User: Fold these one by one.
Assistant:
Number 1:
Amino acid sequence: MTFRKDFLWGGATAANQCEGAYNLDGRGLANVDLCPVGKDREAVITGKMKMLDFDDDHFYPAKNSIDMYHRYKEDIALFAEMGFKVYRFSIAWTRIFPLGDEETPNEEGLKFYENLIDECLKYGIEPLITLVHFDFPMHLANEYGGWRNRKTIEFYAKFVRTIMERFKGKVRYYLNFNEMNVLMAAPFMGAGLYFEEGENPREAQYLAAHHELVASARAKQIAKEVDPNIMIGCMLAAGKYYPATCKPEDILAAQEEDRNNYFFVDVQSRGYYPSYMVKKLEREGIMPEVTEEDKKLLRENTIDFISFSYYTTRTISADKNTELEEANLIATVDNPYLGKTDWGWQIDPLGFRTTINDIYDRYQKPLFVVENGLGAYDKPDENGYVEDDYRINYLRDHIKAMRDAVELDGADILGYTTWGPIDLVSAGTGEMTKRYGFIYVDRDDYGNGTLKRSKKKSFDWYKKVIASNGEDLD
């Protein structure tokens, strides 16, 4: 068989996109709660429009989402029916430390995740925990300036130690941050940053990035102290950049964009700032302070594996007058050789293989594909059943490409979790109509619906894929 016998098939969600229950059992206010659906969402998540509390002019989908907080047993039972080997989920920081800087954690929050983990283990499902999936306590954003502030490293470290000590022996796989590179495109959602008049946003972003990189190393340091069996991974929003033409200038532009993304993994995997980024930040006069203690911590606490999301590749031209389109918060030149999703993301299964190869060749560490999926308009029948052959075709083509990366190219991949196995709120747009799941949830973009769960056609297809360890894709 192509994939290792212990290959971890499953699905991935994020607390703020599925749990709901935003104000129950001691949970505090988080940045992700304040990201509305509609025309202002992009301005809010990019830090251009301040949203410090709820108002009456917007709808906030994360408040209730699909109410997995109360329905997790039903949902995990459905995941188990599909045969999941792993379930990737995140922990809402504000369920554990509502303000972020408390001395003691919120026991009700810890108990919720302990029950969720135990429910997974009951079915033999390995928990894969994302420690921070964009969630950031608003108290830390308002009082400390978000990840700009070095103090945030220790607040995060306390959160991490609390989680790892509580779930020691139950959880082996952790991711330190979800898609750390997204803080460059969506700084409020990614790092709790909103910008003040006259502030240099890039300077603030790279300062925040440095503090997250040091915090990542602290997470690995804590893991070694708590349980040497814990494996810590970083997480990248991946997808190769293609040059728009074979002009040398376009080739260089694509290389530079790839480097901008790989920088975050370079530091976490190699343990030091790459020279290309040092030169760039020094040229711009925005190099953050990197202390000797930082350097030692980064050097001695590199990650064990590299996880990433893959939805699409992007194309770039050195010509600044070239027309651009937006795909997943990132601008791209149209690639005429690729089809597109309902939301205009370019569909590129072969790009998945080349992206895997790029990452594995660069780092030579085990990989974990923790997000891949198709956001689409689904049309359920009266029973909630969806004939989603388009989703099956998308996933089939991508799994084949991943299989080729393993079988033909020699990549070492630990597992594959689709995004998201159940319909949930979109991070980019805040919509429910942008559906990814094998399980349909009766809810619209503005919270209307019964929240009833029903299986789509892809449910049984993925069940067969898992049972055959990726061999039966028909």
Note: The longest strand covers residues 231-238.
Number 2:
Amino acid sequence: MKLSNFFIFSFLFITGFLWGVQVDGSRHHHHHDHYKNSHNNPKNYKNEQKRNQIYGFKPTKLFVFGDSYADTGNNRKSVANSWKQPYGVTFPGKPAGRFSDGRVLTDYLARFLGVKSPVPYRWMKYATKRLRYGINFAYGGTGVFNTRVPEPNMTTQIDFFQKLMAESVYTKADIVQSSLFLLSLAGNDYGAYLSKGGTVQDIPAFITSVVNQLVVNMKRVNKLGAKKIAVTSLEPLGCLPQTTILNSFQQCNATENIAVDLHNSLLQQAVAKLNNETMGSTFVILDLFSSFNSVLESKGVPAGSMRFETPLKPCCMGISNKYSCGSMNEKGEKMYTVCNDPKSAFFWDTVHPTEAGWHAVYTSLKSTLTQKIL
């Protein structure tokens, strides 16, 4: 696969994406009450649990490894913009470490399982009662290899989990019977690779190494007892606002998505092989590529209530290339702007979806979640 010089430029442009810009670095109001109630009604968890019992799978725990698409508060406040205003403005109403205005992928997957969103690993000692729902080990800005953020990569995150098992916080029998494992990989490895001088000619080989390491991680958690492991496909990087800003947020960059296609194709082949080796359906792919594209192309979910008029344009942006969402100058003045209604935007900042965006993605995924996980 040959990638053009334009790919080098545009891919480099997006590749601080989960660690450069965000890590430290009014329409349809009549739908919003329904949207809000669908999240806050405690009956939702009971309904999801009843449904799961019907299908025979009764997960009570969710263990999460990965990056900012799944992180719910592990990054240090000194490192991540996710702890700064206006992050968290929709939920929980203040910055809480999520790279969004509200809920993210982990929260929706937990909701699907009918359990509470697992507590972030860094805060587990303050919420021991929540450990029965699992733990979120994901750190924004990380990958399967070391990236430019001083946070633990996926291998180290799994080390944390294995240590808890050694300390009998969780037993292997407990893991086998009642847990779902999520591995989120949104592309930070590729940004780090190019920033360290990696060449475009070697990108296909590097993509292969990333997928291979992801497979190593999947096999490892399987050996620790996991019988259901979900891994995310790579989202369409060419559709992220940090790329589409080049054309005023009008269209995705198809060239960048060629590399994404290679990653996802290799991942699909690897998962099929793993399932063949285990003689089952232990490993499943959460197809973020297709679900993102479906939502972006339809400007929402056809069967849903949300509508994104300009889906490639983020809600929160820095006032110039020098600044990002959440940035302040030396005088303490805001160096960013926020749209009037985050629920009308698919993207929150130049990389991450809004809560409404993740809800739309979850809605798109939901039917396949039932088939693959339950």
Note: Residues 1-40 have pLDDT under 50 and may be disordered.
Number 3:
Amino acid sequence: MTQYTLKCEEKIRLYSLLRLKLPSLLKTEISNSKLRRLIISGSIFVNGKQIRIPAFTVFKGSSVVAEIEEEKLFFEKQPDDIDFQLCEKDILFEDESIIVVNKPCHFPSEASMVLSRKNLHSAVVDYLFKRQKREKPLAKNPPYVGIMHRLDRDTSGAILFTKTRTVNKAFHDMFEQHLIHKEYVAVCCGIPKKENFIVEFTMGRISRKSEPAKWGFLEEENGGLASKTEFTVLNSKGNFCVVKCKLFTGRTHQIRVHLSSVALSILGDVLYGGLFNERIMLHSKKLSFIHPLTSEKIEIESPLPSEFEIYLLK
């Protein structure tokens, strides 16, 4: 991935700025649809903040950075995603303001630069729209679905979306302040030294921009951010173990990096030293929080996929 910095010399829409500046930096023409997909996919940052709105207003002197994987942008290689359609059985919790669904493995959480690529966010919109059409056949506009957090393509389990913009700030703040408690289950390669342990250090991206994105220990003075995870061993069998992971912070690849740092790389996570497997054995097991509208304590659990069961047998 390469970073490109764009100079903003006047008040302008983000899309128009990219249209004006990016082709010369890339030394090639780029279609209008790809420019929009670049923004929607989360590749553009204005003054350090990720912006996904093509019509966003950029002011003179703003810092605009485009993070681009040129191979994906220009060749649009199709990943080996599953063909998934959301059904009622995949809904873990729903009320008037939120919907929590059980994400499958090998399926992206949100839209990417490949316009035709299916994703969970779109699947939720489609599911709610079809239900809406059954209740109101004349409905024309798809319902709103907001993205509050993400799971990696190969991570399965519970993921929350909002159904109305009025609760976005409340849930955004809850995720930012870690008031929504997240528990994962991972199958790891190795023999744990303790049944309960905590991994805590500053971390950040350690790979070069031209290399696959990889995170690890990084000093605070170099941009590292605090990270903390509590681990509990649920079962140990041969050279593998099953570990419950409780997050206290939400850094990119946090669980994967922390487990790798104690010689317990996740099975299938070859980027961080794990043995090859058909999937990365990491599952979002539980979300718990106080509902901002009802003040009710909500606990939502996602059943473990069948491929985890063999590692839980005594």
Note: The radius of gyration is 21 Å.
Number 4:
Amino acid sequence: MKVFVLLLAVLGTTLAAKLDKTPYLDKTPNGLAALLAEKGGIEVGEIGTRIVGGVTTPIEQVPYIVSMQRNNAHRCGGAIISPTRILTAAHCLFATFFPIPATELSVRAGSSNSASGGQVIQVLRYVNHPQYSHITLNNDIAVMHLVSALDLSPAGVATIGMPAQNAGVAAGTLARVSGWGALSEGGAGSITLQAVSVPVVTNAECNASYGGGITNGMLCAGFPEGGRDACQGDSGGPLSAGNQVIGIVSWGRGCARPGFPGVYARVAFYRSWIDEN
């Protein structure tokens, strides 16, 4: 027991230090932050449900987004890449450090409201990237397989393309992030879909902002002055440009803070892995 407690203490100290530099769980629905709060490490604010600085957006404008739900409650976003496959963030599929059973998960497609309308399909299984790290959020990407195919005939349901393996994206490219995340950092929100456009920044610039930790599998986007960003509840949702999903909402220091762009899983880096799964 003493050894177990000591290991928890060491882990808590290490992770708290990491969170001080890159508190990525500001964008997650629960998980590591909740665990550390239980251990007295950090405080966790109220989880909200809207994009920061965005506008209410009809599902027809972003028909490739889904609300990933756990026990019929919105948890994260996702992107439709085929009628039976959804791209999302690996961290969305864990509660604290434990994987969520697929039987508790479903997706709602074709509705601007995360609580009603559209099509609700059960998740059959999911595949997390095998090198996903809870600590660094590197390789924060997963593919969910649905029990049955989505009906793509309604205007509000469609697949989205993906870039080729290792395809680049120019700094300054304006990309749209959408979801049901928080309106403000730690704030309350609504169940109505929101979207906002943010410019892509280089990994070098992003690394300078965060003091390191930005890998080749990550992509950053945001304004230097902040004000527009993804937030809690947007995790797993798509960052899109040119009719392709180029990023998956992963982490960031708070939400829409000046000097701290949002960090996304870079889809082009993982394209081959996605195709295999």
Note: Helices lie at 2-21, 32-38, 203-210, 271-276.
